[in-house]
Specification:
The chain is an alpha/beta fold. The protein is built from four helices and twelve strands.
């Protein structure tokens, strides 16, 4: 891929402005994937804005008596993880974040992270602040899934040394293992 990270971000964000018709497709695929992998502990972002929708998946995990669900919130330059609850506040970046005591997230079965783009080598392109790269460097997970729209899965995207890889990609229409 010859485009730089900022150039690719600009392309993807412009495409996202026109909207997507995925609906709850990502959530439905994630529910099946979590079930197939017998996930008992799940850490997942709460989607907002133009991000692929995880709301049904989050609700499924929350209502399951067999899954412990954790969601991130921003703390300075890092993410901290909190057991999911409905008691939330709006962060200045626009997303809802749960209140509660942060936990040391380690050894989760399934970690679901957002991205603007991903490639077939397991690289992901975030929004550029590095929150998830830093989180991925410190969390042990059996499966790490990045969620993107179908048109955001590329053969190759630009990467740097600090970029963390994932082992699974969930698009609107499929789950791809790396």
């Amino acid at each position: 891929m010859e485009a730089s990270k900022p150039a690719l971000r600009k392309i993807v964000l412009a495409e996202r402005e026109s909207g997507h018709t995925c609906g709850h497709a990502h959530s439905n695929l994630l529910i099946d994937f979590a079930h197939e992998n017998r996930a008992k502990t799940v850490a997942c972002y709460i989607s907002f804005g133009d991000e692929p929708n995880t709301n049904v998946f989050v609700k499924h995990c929350q209502l399951s008596d067999q899954i412990k669900l954790y969601v991130p919130r921003v703390s300075g330059e890092t993410l901290e993880w909190v057991e999911y609850n409905e008691n939330q506040v709006r962060h200045k970046l626009g997303m809802n974040e749960p209140l509660g005591q942060p936990i040391d997230l380690n050894n989760v079965d399934l970690l679901v992270v957002p991205a603007l783009a991903a490639d077939h080598q397991g690289n992901r392109l975030g929004r550029g602040k590095g929150f998830y790269d830093r989180a991925l460097a410190s969390i042990t997970a059996k499966k790490i899934v990045v969620v993107v729209h179908d048109n955001e899965l590329y053969q190759e995207i630009p990467v740097e040394k600090h970029d963390a890889k994932v082992d699974t990609i969930c698009t609107c229409s499929s789950v791809v293992s790396i």
